[in-house]
Amino acid sequence: MTNMAPANPLNAQHRDSTTGLRTGSARRGRGEAREHAISHSHTTMEQALDKGLKAALAKATAGLSPIALTAAYADWALHLASAPGKQLQLMEKAAKKAARFGNYAALCASNPKTTETCIDPLPQDKRFRSENWQKWPYNLMYQAFLLNQQWWYNATTDVEGVTAQHEDVMTFAARQVLDVFSPSNYPLTNPDILEQTLHQGGMNLLRGWQNFIEDVSRAKAKQKPVGAEEFEVGRNVATSAGKVVFRNRLIELIQYAPTTDKVRPEPILIVPAWIMKYYILDLSEENSLVRFLTGQGFTVFMISWKNPDADDRDLGMDDYLSLGVMDALDAIEGITGEPDVHALGYCLGGTLLSIAAAAMARDGDARLKTLTLLAAQTDFTEAGELQLFINESQLTFLEDMMWDQGYLDTTQMAGAFQLLRSNDLIWSRIVHDYLMGKRTPMIDLMAWNADATRMPYRMHSEYLRRLFLNNDLAEGRYHVGDRPVTISDIRAPVFMVGTERDHVAPWHSVYKFNLLSDGDVTFVLASGGHNAGIVSEPGHPHRHYRIAEKDKDAPYQDPDRWVEGTEPVPGSWWPALAEWLAIRSGEPAAPPSLGSSEYPALCDAPGTYVYRE
Length: 613
Known about the structure:
The chain has 19 helices and 17 strands. The protein has 613 residues and is of the alpha/beta class.
């Protein structure tokens, strides 16, 4: 099949038909992506000394830069020390809180059941919901803790002169330190643990100790969490039938078998994030987006990313663009003979797909008929608490750690995400698994979450610097090839999904696509978080979503006003996506073959790359 797209730096390559690997001189759009990443082979002895020292230090600090933390502390402490008015305000708050707590304690002594608490936990704080916490003396313990936590929030915020980033770091750090001393974390101060210990004669603590030893042993042996072995790729997850029809050094392209007699002529290309294995969108049979879309009469292709190692240290964002999205589009066109494609990207894959769409629009490549972006950011000015770890000092520290090993390890990424939700992912687990002696049953989504991948040194450095730190894509400085790309060039209609409780890609950040786009955008706000809100199959209980279309000529509406004016719809948003795609597709016809003479089937789905540890 002759490529119908205009020749441009994004699709100049040739293919070795005997191996299925892309070869030759095609390295599209190196551009300015190399400016921040220093090649391992060109590092001077002096640079290597500095980098090696910081890499060794990073192993002891879990990748957090002590210099960055010290700078934040110094900024806050010096400005607070020079603000007597703020100090006086904090003393007044401390006195008022002490008086309020004293009054509460006195009233509790005489009438504990009807005494109104002096402070309530935040809505997301589930530590003190049990009725046992309303009994003396535990009510005094948790009230004192919450008042102390509130005072420290006052102390770390609204200090004039402190940068916003340093203020966020100090608030975060204070919360982490205080959470260590929460009365919910200790057997003698947690009434629920005491109740279970008395009821079970201490067997909960014995089981908890066994759970702890088992978890430590698995961590040292680099094994997956307890129960994850019940979910085996190709057996009960990632089981949709299909063939790997293309392979290069970075991806395998899976073409899924049709499940209907006729299919829409436009195939769907799914670009998942490479921070985890691809199959979150093809989990179990009942919650697989792949199965849902094929059941709606679509031909579906999916990229399965290789888990990189030290040899892939110099793969950059442009390699993920060229070897990933562009090679996949070429293969799909070669197999189906269809120049129009519905492209769908999730998380980091959605950001990459946005870059690809902008570059293709710039170069006159019109193969993307629609664009679907799931929890994907294009403007990173409100990228959530992940920005706590993004400044020049922290990135340099992280780059030196990756320089030493060639990649960012899975455990290092997991640690950062756990810190962001320490109550839910660290302390609640300690209480539940080790003090209550229980185990949360493993589900497919949790098992997938434990199947993490590494991140190449160059790519991760470029991604964090060019997007998170400098926000180049939103501000017109992101280069593909030798020219910048911009989201406003995209003319394909866009279906965009954000999720209400997303800590990775906050929906307000996802919504900013509306500020960058000059096209038609259908925005969906789904219930759930970054993963569970996307894996939201029809029939899933307690799901809802909001949806509204914005014409390219319509005025901008801020996200909070958008929510107020958009009524929730019960159920899954998946049928809304299928309907949106069907309206923009041709009449159903006979499905294409699995592979072609130019792109023969190499093996059965789920392929080989998904098994690489």
